[in-house]
Amino acid sequence: MSLQSAVPANPGRRRAVMSLVGLSLLGLLPRPVSGQEKPVVIPPPARDLEESGDTAVALLAGGCFWGVQGVFQRVKGVRNAVSGYSGGAAETATYELTTRGDTGHAETVEVTYDPRVVSFGELLHIFFSVAHNPTQLNYQGPDHGTQYRSAIFPMNEEQAEMARGYIAQLDATGLFEGPIVTTIEPFVAFYPAEQYHQDFLTLNPTWPYIVVHDLPKIAALERIFPEHFRAEPVLVGLLEEG
After folding, report:
1. Of 24, 35, 117, 236, which sees the most CB atoms within 10 A?
2. 20 among known catalytic residues
3. C-alpha dihedral over 93, 94, 100, 106, to 10 degrees?
4. Is residue 69 within 8 Å of residue 112, measured between CB atoms?
5. How many domains would you assign to the chain?
6. How far apart are the first and last CA of the chain?
7. Which CATH number goes with the domain that contains 231?
8. Residue range 207-231, pLDDT digits in tens
9. What's the distance, CA 208 to chain centroid?
């Protein structure tokens, strides 16, 4: 992917990426800023869902979908993880429009998983621990706006109740730097993002934004959740080719 085509249209992310590109060229690529999206070792949910069947879906928004998708693509039991948009209307479900911050959409990842291998509760455990910082209101790291909010779009009331209970449980631990601001929002629809956003972390491992903000999440997943980690991610592109 060329520099021009890969640099995001969002002004905030574009400035952050171009700054990192300059530092990279000078050999001064910074380390991740402590506290931005630093992983937190947290307890699992006090209770989990009893799910039947071999396929279920979780919709999770935690800032830039590149990193969130990359994390869940490396979780055992995940069949597919697709970057996209949720929370707004179909006609505004594009990257160009969503980056305005006024569409209601959040950059969201649709995680399709096998509940016989990984549960909804285990996905939330990973989501709150390593996939993003749930205490940041309407931003993650350098990305600011409601489109980067922390949110869960439950597929049913059972998921909603469990998410609310887990947030209350985690707030009570005092392990985070502040209260969790993750919203539980009604699910209406999910719209897959443009193809150039899919598998972005895996296809661009040396891209400065990925190096600084997202690869540390993959390392944290392997370190904190070794029983869930798989080295070979399940990619959207491979599934489409198959």
Report:
1. 236
2. no
3. 50
4. no
5. 1
6. 23
7. 3.30.1060.10
8. 999 999 999 999 999 999 999 999 9
9. 18
